[in-house]
Design goal:
3 domains, 15 helices, eight-stranded mixed β-sheet, five-stranded mixed β-sheet, binds zinc ion, BirA Bifunctional Protein, domain 2
């Protein structure tokens, strides 16, 4: 037993999963590039205040889940629980608003939340997120939603469902919240403990509850769509029209409200029924005031984020395999210790020619080296003995057919040229 174990809620990505994660991240960056997004990398930690302001003091994230700490200089810092706040901070701080609008940024990074660990949910987890800043155009909403969905389609993730709604704006939402609060307060006794706590502090969050009893009461709750202003309604209508233009199928859920305080107007979620109760794979929406709230220009924006582990879970559930173990093209074996340095040198030469090469270390007999080559699923072996070094012709063995021939290094390289 190791003296140490990983911290609860964290994960080791062993090679196969690490490669899958890397593949998904890289695919996202290149896929998003086709829509004009460019990669941004922000720090893992920021001033706590940044997140409190954007996500909202009354949310679970801030109250219970944020990893907050003081550094040795006494600064109040937090590991980022989400990506948008950091991107917006960087956008303002680096004057990215001077770029042609909308400014489109993608991030691929770890997030940290002190949540109860469960299937596909970790305390350190990965997100792929996108932010398009500087346009209120509903056509941009449609493009962003289509990108989100299309990326998952490109990965062959099936059975996706897109849910959209409008969350209104700062002028009309307070009116709705008042009506909602009244409704919820009257039914308070019917709700679970978490919900009844939320009614006072953050009534929109009640919709997050997965409990059947609460959901039943909520199905009769007033709908935000009946309370949003004319401008929001018009905006939402256009989003729907543009989505139809793009042949994107959607369902309107009048009770879809995204968790963070900064969301306005279009909100959306992509769910995957095979993920069970944790069925959201991506979510996003407009946040038209956040940049101004942070002291930046008055620029509306929209963004979304994927839970990368959820995508990986979908891969597992659908038995999508992306990788096979990389097997060596050539296994370089040496006959005696005296030829080990030649084997080392020849391995390096072959790698320079872009071949995948392994060799044996430690004291081993040739026979045991070839057994190792077998275990590694090497396709061929190159045997380096005294004779071979003298003549410059090496024994090259096809490990599948067991056929062998004498070849120079150049001839060995040429063998692979046709297949590479
Ligand atoms: Zn409004
Ligand atoms: Zn509840």
């Amino acid at each position: 037993m190791s003296k140490y174990t990983r911290v609860r809620g964290t994960q080791d990505f062993l090679p196969e999963r690490a490669e899958l994660l890397h593949f998904i991240n890289e695919s996202a960056v290149s896929f998003f590039e086709n829509y004009g997004y460019r990669l941004i990398i922000t720090p893992t930690f920021e001033n706590s205040e940044l997140f409190k302001r954007s996500v909202g003091e009354s949310t679970d994230i801030i109250q219970k889940e944020m990893y907050e700490f003081k550094d040795k200089g006494g600064r109040d810092l937090a590991l980022r629980p989400e990506g948008t706040a950091s991107v917006v901070r960087a956008y303002i701080e680096n004057n990215l608003g001077e770029l042609p609008k909308p400014v489109k940024l993608i991030y691929v990074s770890q997030m940290f939340r002190y949540e109860r660990p469960q299937a596909g949910r970790y305390r350190e987890f990965w997100q792929i997120g996108a932010e398009a800043i500087g346009s209120p155009d509903p056509a941009l909403d449609a493009e962003v939603i289509e990108l989100c969905l299309n990326f998952l389609n490109s990965l062959a993730v099936k059975d996706l469902k897109l849910i959209i709604n409008s969350m209104g704006c700062r002028n009309c939402r307070p009116g709705y919240i008042k009506v909602l609060k009244k409704f919820l307060s009257e039914k308070e006794a019917l709700f679970c403990k978490t919900c009844s706590q939320r009614i006072e502090q953050n009534p929109l969050r009640v919709f997050d509850c997965k409990q059947k009893e609460c959901q039943k009461v909520l199905s009769e709750a007033p709908k935000i769509s009946d309370y949003i202003c004319e401008e929001d309604k018009e905006h939402f209508e256009k989003v729907k029209i543009y989505l139809k233009t793009l042949n994107v199928e959607f369902v309107i859920d009048p009770h879809l409200v995204r968790g963070f305080d900064y969301y306005t107007r279009t909100a959306f979620e992509i769910t995957l029924s095979s993920l069970g109760s944790q069925d959201a794979i991506a979510g996003g929406g407009r946040y038209d005031y956040l940049i101004k709230d942070y002291g930046g220009p008055d620029e509306p924006a929209i963004g979304f984020a994927f839970g990368t582990e959820r995508i990986m879970l979908a891969f597992e559930n659908q038995n999508i395999t992306v990788f096979t173990e990389p097997e060596p093209d050539v296994f370089v074996a040496w006959v005696e210790e005296a030829q080990k340095s030649d084997a080392l040198r020849i391995s390096a030469m072959l790698r320079e020619k872009h071949l995948r090469v392994s060799m044996a270390f430690d004291s081993r007999k040739l026979k045991s080296q070839l057994k190792l080559a077998d275990k590694l699923n090497a396709n061929t072996a190159l045997i380096v003995g005294e004779e071979e070094i003298k003549s410059g012709k090496y024994t090259f063995k096809d490990l599948e057919s067991a056929k062998q021939e004498k070849l120079t290094i150049e001839e060995v390289v040429n063998k692979f040229k046709d297949n590479k």
